[in-house]
Amino acid sequence: MPERAGLDSFFAPASVAVVGATPTEGKGGYGIIHNILDSYEGPVYPVNPGREEILGVKCYPSLRELKGKVELAIVFVPAAMVPEVLEDAVEAGVKAALVESGGFAEVGGEGKLLSDRCKEISDKSGLRIWGPNCTGLVNTDPFIFAPFMLLRKARERLKPGRLGIISQSGMLAAGFMMQYVISGFFTTSKACAIGNKLDVDEVEVLRYMAEDPKTEAVIAYLESIDDGRAFLEVAREMAGRKPLAVIKGGRYEESARAALSHTASLAGSDKVIDGALRQAGAIRLDDFHDLMNLGKAFSLHPGPFKLATEEANNIAIVTVTGGAGVATIDMARSSGMNIADLEEKTLESLTKVFPDWMPPGNPVDIWPAFEQHGTDTFVEVLRDVLADARVDGVILLPFADRTVEYFPFDKVGRELEKHGKPMVSWIFGDIRYFKLFEECWNEFGVPVYTDIRACVLAMDAYLRFSRAARSKRSGGPTG
Amino acid sequence: MPERAGLDSFFAPASVAVVGATPTEGKGGYGIIHNILDSYEGPVYPVNPGREEILGVKCYPSLRELKGKVELAIVFVPAAMVPEVLEDAVEAGVKAALVESGGFAEVGGEGKLLSDRCKEISDKSGLRIWGPNCTGLVNTDPFIFAPFMLLRKARERLKPGRLGIISQSGMLAAGFMMQYVISGFFTTSKACAIGNKLDVDEVEVLRYMAEDPKTEAVIAYLESIDDGRAFLEVAREMAGRKPLAVIKGGRYEESARAALSHTASLAGSDKVIDGALRQAGAIRLDDFHDLMNLGKAFSLHPGPFKLATEEANNIAIVTVTGGAGVATIDMARSSGMNIADLEEKTLESLTKVFPDWMPPGNPVDIWPAFEQHGTDTFVEVLRDVLADARVDGVILLPFADRTVEYFPFDKVGRELEKHGKPMVSWIFGDIRYFKLFEECWNEFGVPVYTDIRACVLAMDAYLRFSRAARSKRSGGPTG
Questions:
Q1: What is the pLDDT, as a whole number, of residue A80?
Q2: Which tops the pLDDT comparison, B374 or B75?
Q3: Which of A430, A459, B51, B406 can pair with B59 through a Cys bridge, CB separation 3.0 to 4.6 Å?
Q4: Lowest mean pLDDT among A12-21, A167-176, A350-359, B454-463
Q5: Do A326 and B255 count as a contact with CB atoms less than 8 A apart?
């Protein structure tokens, strides 16, 4: 068996060649060479037999001219030319090839034959192949931005974070990047699209992220899991150590078929996979938006949190609106969480800030007290509620208006840090104050959402993961 | 029995008094008088015994001085003073009192006694009472903006629309206003918070909106439905005629109890209500965000749409990303929709724009064709798909980048209008282009969302309502 490199050769290569680099703007081969020159600090070698130089950098006719110089070759040439490029790569001692070109197994016929030839090259030589048919990968430390979609100033725009992102679908992963990462919805450690999985597959990437010290939580969108047993093993190993949330598409016959035509992979038996994910303590979702929302929660605070109660599933709701409190209860109970029965001493203390006519309870409807005492009410109420030994986590439902400017973030933040309990917040009202509110809370690791459903989802995930971590510490069952 | 006015006296009064008006900024009584003077075109009478004039308008010591002049009195004085104000109102011939003050049945004890006295006055005199304990109501034509929360330039900011909004929770309704209406998320015909329902209740308001020619669809957040039979009757009457989506809080014991303390109403037997809503063809939801998303869909196009097939439940998915297509299938199938089996002629026609290696199917993965032919691909593909006799509706999943500028909205829009089928769109990618994409589609009645779940929810609601309308026309069962 030839020696085979690990995924560091993709995520942290010592040098990079871009095969199919072109100075023609708008082409993918331009996007890649631009992105790499702009984002990556090691030596870069454009490869294109028709060019002397590209973007001011000397260009080589083939990888063969770069013998011993290249660790990672990023390949973006027509499918029919890829096998030859890979043979050149082997010849040049390249360790890893990120093949972003499409037109392989996913198109059937000739593409399938090309795919088989590439696989053969990889098996025989030990050359690692990522893809084909993928949009590439991103590492924020050390930095490399390898997708073919042009992104200016990637280093400035993609801030290092603790979240790992795995997507099987190229366009979708690109969408994740563009929409969520670039917009600052969350920060990321590593993000990648795995494509056709000719060699590197979802299990190897997940295992890599499970071991990566810079990745503290992982979200994944997968159309197929080929080796359920191996996937389960990694997921189990992560349980209670790093949160894992997964969309596994293809629940239905039609979607499984669509997944097959899209990335040439079988969707596997959905029920087996569902059970395996649950057993391993992973969170399975259906919606990208949910996945992004959990990604935000885990990127801000991966957990685990301190748990107050044995069941570790009891929440308090602090709200400025009774209606939102009622709706939150319905959603929290649907998700299996309990509404904490507050301690007598908490209720007594709340009585001091509540008006006479209003007995405190859970949900803690803070509005009348807030009207009387202003924003300090939040400090007093949250101090009491966070200190309550029957409360494992808090869902905060405030109103955004100019009083947000006076919100006592620091004081409440210190209480949060003191108790180590999770808090998530919905915000509604005047959207001009949302950004301020969110940024101030994010500093304390509190995710802020504009829908209650996302709050409930995040709190449930925080508590589940914290329970799994406690179980692991005590040697009990995970999940 | 005394004669009792209808709800026109609240939504379209000939004259308005504001009892508790004050020139002190920041107070609710300032908010109301400001809002009314700024938004309402009829005569306005501030009432406050301690003032000569407020905001330049002559002020009266009591409603009694305004005998015969006032149709609607908006009341914002301490609870203990409300019965006397109502007696003054009766004396002055006022037809309707909108009581925004809190401190009644929802606080128990003394408040309950005050509430009973108000009820007695209403019963005996015929004076209609809205509230108490509510944030008010809004009508966009004729315009009146009555909440106590100050909103500058309400007439300019709240555009008339076709959606009616009913909320039981005051703060929440205010939140709806602030966040969704003011931000332009949707336009509204009438919006209101019903509060403690001392006299006017959810059934009467819903019936009013069901009959209001300017309201073509209704979304409602209710914590309780007191007279299930009457509610069901109105909902049934609306089935197939005006879409109705409802959040009915209090599914669980804890939330039912919280609803009780919040608006002094019993949550009713949840299962009975659930069944009744379903029978009446109403859509029941749990999450505000979902309710807002359906509100947007119905405000843009209330339906009903033309239905192509007998089952009227078959969708086509046109996507630039296979992954999103797979996820959409999973969610659509979960909601009970079918993935249309496209006609042979549609597939043949698609073959012309698809590359050779890619056989067209549903989802219609448009990316490779788009890469070859540019934005015109959308026209060709959507023309074929909309014309397909097996397709009842289309979910469009495009990518936002600068090509949005060239998107053929008009051409596709004409096809949409020609076929009368519903289309909804998700958008992802570069958020700078979202607004443009959304505005251009909204002109054709196509709602645009940033999560697929919302698309699926809206399409499902469109098709359900269109089926109910077809049933009604053919005299069959509704729902």
A1: 95
A2: B75
A3: B51
A4: A167-176
A5: yes
Could you give the CA distance from residue B126 to residue B129 in angstroms, rounded to a whole number? Answer: 9
C-alpha B382/C-alpha B361 separation (Å) is 13
State the amino acid at position A91 in one-letter form.
Answer: E
pLDDT of residue B137: 93
- Contact criterion met (CB below 8 Å) for A72 and A131: no
Tokens of B142: 């004729």
| Model pLDDT for residues A420-449, shown as the tens digit of each residue | 999 999 998 888 899 999 999 999 999 999
pLDDT of residue A266: 43
Determine the pLDDT at residue A261: 58
Query: What is the rounded CA–CA span in Å between residue A174 and residue B320?
Result: 12
State the pLDDT at residue B479.
Answer: 43
Order of strands, sheet of B244-248, starting from the edge strand that comes earlier in the sequence = B143-145, B137-140, B188-193, B160-167, B217-222, B244-248, B283-285
Residue A18 CA to residue A46 CA, distance in Å, equals 5
Task: Using alpha carbons, select from B35, B241, B284 the residue that is nearest to residue B138.
Answer: B35
Alpha-carbon gap: A79 to the closest alpha carbon of chain B (Å): 12
pLDDT-derived band at A258 (thresholds 50, 70, 90) equals: confident
> A366 to chain B: which residues are within 8 Å by CB?
none
- B437 three-class SS: helix
What residues form DSSP beta bridges with A316?
A394
Q: Residue B266 pLDDT > 50, yes or no?
A: no
In angstroms, the separation between the Cα of residue B253 and the nearest Cα of chain A is: 9
Residues written for chain A: 479
Let me know: does A158 contact A140? Beta carbons within 8 Å.
Answer: yes
ipTM: 0.76
Beta bridge partners of A145: A138
Asked whether the beta carbons of A193 and A170 are under 8 A apart, the reply is yes
**Is B179 an interface residue toward A (CB < 8 Å)?**
yes
Tokens 């209101």 belong to residue = B192
pLDDT in tens, B268-309: 567 777 777 887 889 998 888 899 999 999 999 999 999 999
Alpha-carbon gap: B4 to the closest alpha carbon of chain A (Å) = 30
> How far apart (Å, rounded) are the C-alpha atoms in residues A380 and A374?
11
Mean pLDDT of A86-94: 98
DSSP state of B71: S
The answer to whether residue A372 neighbours chain B at the CB level (below 8 Å) is no
Nearest CA in chain B to A184: B431
Give the 3-state secondary structure of residue B120. helix
Token match 């400001």: residue?
B34
Whether the upstream peptide bond of residue A359 has omega within 30° of 0, thus cis, is: no
d(CA B95, CA B90): 8
Q: CA A394, CA A397: separation in Å to the nearest integer?
A: 10
Residue A250 touches partner B, C-beta closer than 8 Å? yes
Q: Shortest Cα distance from A468 to chain B (angstroms)?
A: 27
Tokens of B254: 């804890």
Integer CA distances (angstroms), A144 to A34, A452, B192, in order? 12, 36, 53
pLDDT in tens, B21-47: 999 988 899 999 999 999 999 999 999
Question: What pTM was estimated for this model as a whole?
Answer: 0.85
> Cis omega (within 30 of 0) on the bond before B160?
no
